[in-house]
Amino acid sequence: MGNLRSAEKALEHVGAEAERTHDHARIHSADGLVLPGDGAFPRAMERIRALGLDRVLAERLAAGSPVLGICVGMQVLFEGSTELGGAQGLGLLRGTVGRLEAPGLKLPHIGWSAVSWRRPSTLVEGLGDPCAFYHVHSYAPTGVDEADVVGVAEHGAPFVSVVEREGLWGVQFHPEKSATDGLALLRNFAGICAARALPAPA
Fold first, then answer.
1. Coil, strand, or helix at residue 124?
2. What are the phi and psi torsion angles at 173 (to 5°)?
3. Does pLDDT of 5 surpass 90?
4. Is 105 a residue whose pLDDT tops 60?
5. Which of 71, 137, 155, 193 is an active site residue?
6. Residue 37 has pLDDT above 90, yes or no
7. How far apart are CA 151 and CA 24, in angstroms?
8. Which one from 109, 164, 174, 193 is the annotated catalytic residue?
């Protein structure tokens, strides 16, 4: 939902062959998957389930295909959200998406925020520490397994901004709107996909 074309253009800019599709056969033939999203968590999950993308995402992950969730596309990777009365997520990562704790600050949080790295990740290889990315959100995941946390930013209080677990990545910000460093992150993801697509050595 929302930012599909801008994400597609950014991936093309870094040399990836990107295609917007919900066709299951096309998804199964891809070297990697990007799940972008703007808007509300419950509506995003309605669309994902209506298109059967919950099943195909699980199948591709099980087969070793890299997956990157962007903004709401990251949030739906978790168990659920409290937004608009609550909704169940994909449950691929532990945690619940809740409203940002930002007393005295405006929500949604819109603008550049520095992300500090908690552990190394191929997704953010070569980026500075901290590194600023463009965020647009009022909600963020809570109760996340520490082992899954790659990067943390702050808006009133710290929040998880980058996660990774076994071929699954998520970023709360918009890399396609984050200038050179955002493109570098997408280039890293394209490289991960290309490496996974190579045949195993004989």
1. helix
2. -90, 180
3. no
4. yes
5. 71
6. no
7. 31
8. 174
Which amino acid is residue 155, in one-letter code? H
The letter for the amino acid at 93 is: L
Q: Check if 174 is active-site.
A: yes
Report the largest interatomic distance among the alpha carbons of the chain, rounded to a whole angstrom.
60
Helix, strand, or coil here: 135?
Answer: strand
- Judge whether 176 counts as a catalytic residue: yes
Active site residue 155: no
Which residue, 57, 9, 14, 16, is CA-closest to 33?
A: 57
Ordered structural domains, the chain, with CATH: 4-197 (3.40.50.880)
And the tokens for 161? Answer: 């901004």
* Mean pLDDT (the chain, rounded): 93
Residues 6+ apart with CB under 8 A from 162: 115, 117, 121, 123, 124, 149, 150, 151, 169, 170, 171, 172
Of these residues, 131, 155, 176, 193, which one is catalytic? 176
For the full predicted model, state whether its pTM sits above 0.85: yes
Distance CA(50)–CA(116), nearest Å, equals 36
